[in-house]
Specification:
By secondary structure, the chain is of the alpha/beta class. It has 7 helices and 7 strands. It has helices at residues 6-9, 26-44, 69-79, 91-94, 98-110, 129-160, 186-192, and strands at 13-21, 49-58, 85-88, 115-117, 122-123, 174-176, 182-184. The chain has a 5-stranded mixed beta sheet with strand order 2-1-3-4-5, sandwiched between helices. It is elongated. Residues 5-10 have low confidence and may be disordered.
């Protein structure tokens, strides 16, 4: 994939990478580590890049820009002129909300900052990128909504089957017993009463 437009290729570029995983599960953490390795290998193939940093959000959904400190810091650094180009693995890592995605892509395009979506082969500086981005963004958002619906249905079915999940970390007065059922924590029982 051509990462540079002709006018930008002549100078060194301040490049950043953005990675995100939506849960803190071990498999997702491994996925973030794999993204980091991929970015490092990509940077080695582009000596014209000066890699500034990697922004990441771990255990955070891509459906909303809110509560994504790595993403927001990256956008702020773009506005301050610290970044010339963003590289991310895929549209779904950047955002699973089509409106948010397009809003930030357009803002960064106005600033002359391309975003490279490696998986989809999109460079946002190219004219055709917005149509492709809209299509891939809509698919990504629909996938996220489908996953969310499946999880909700699974939880409802589990509840119908009598399986109730407790978050013992935040559940005052009880802990998980040896039989898997809640048991009273004697030291906290007075507080609960």
């Amino acid at each position: 994939m051509n990462f540079e437009s002709d006018s930008l290729a002549a100078r060194r570029r301040k490049v950043v990478f953005y990675g995100r995983v939506s849960t803190e599960m071990e498999a997702q953490i491994a996925a973030l580590k794999n993204q980091i390795i991929w970015y490092q290998q990509l940077a080695e193939r582009h000596p014209e890049w000066t890699v500034v940093t990697m922004y990441e959000d771990e255990g955070i959904s891509g459906r909303s820009i809110n509560n994504r400190p790595g993403f927001m810091k990256m956008i702020e650094d773009c506005r301050k002129g610290k970044i010339d180009m963003i590289v991310t693995k895929s549209v779904s890592r950047f955002s699973r909300n089509n409106l948010d995605c397009l809003m930030y892509v357009r803002e960064l395009k106005q600033l002359g900052i391309p975003i490279i979506f490696e998986k989809e082969g999109i460079n946002t500086i190219q004219v055709s990128s917005e149509l492709l981005l809209t299509l891939f963004g809509a698919l990504s958002q629909a996938e996220s909504e489908s996953i969310s619906m499946n999880v909700k249905l699974g939880i409802r079915q589990s509840l119908k089957n009598g399986n109730v999940r407790f978050s013992y970390k935040t559940f005052l007065g009880y802990r998980k017993g040896v039989d898997g059922q809640p048991e009273i924590v004697p030291e906290q029982a007075d507080i609960v009463r």
